[in-house]
Amino acid sequence: MNCYEALRNTLRKSKPSGRVNAFESLTMGMASGAAAQFVASPGDLAKVQMQTEGRMRTMGFAPRGNSVLDIWRAEVKRGGVRALWKGIYCKSNFPFLQKQKTEGSIFGLA
Q: Which residues contact 7 (CB under 8 A, 6 or more apart)?
């Protein structure tokens, strides 16, 4: 939310009227949501892997690690730093597509 507010306040200051139209608001919302997902993605990756750890061990797989840092190290070793943001495109676009679908159905567009 802070990212959106900062973008909105910056845009308001640059405009003589101080108003932000719907398209600008939508664009700022998409940008701030994508930025938030970019920051949260490595933590989400570690959370999901830790949640599946018990099941993986019962299936005979080696443990991935005991902490978030262990999982991050293993991912970086396996696929480089980019591996921490695996799937970021889908994760960052999904909230926008869900919102578009919901609002479209509310306004009779879908």
A: 28, 31, 32
For 24-73, the pLDDT digits (tens) are 887 888 788 888 888 888 998 889 888 888 888 888 888 778 889 999 99
For residue 3, give the amino acid letter. C
In one-letter notation, the amino acid at residue 84 is L
Total domains present in the chain: 1
List Cβ<8 Å contacts ≥24 apart for 12-19: none
Give the CB-side neighbour count of residue 74, counting CA atoms within 13 A: 14
Q: pTM of the prediction?
A: 0.64
Q: Tokens at residue 54, please?
A: 């018990």
Count Cβ atoms within 10 A of the Cβ of residue 68 and give its class: 0-12 exposed, 13-18 middle, 19 or more buried.
middle
What is the domain range of residue 85? Answer: 2-106
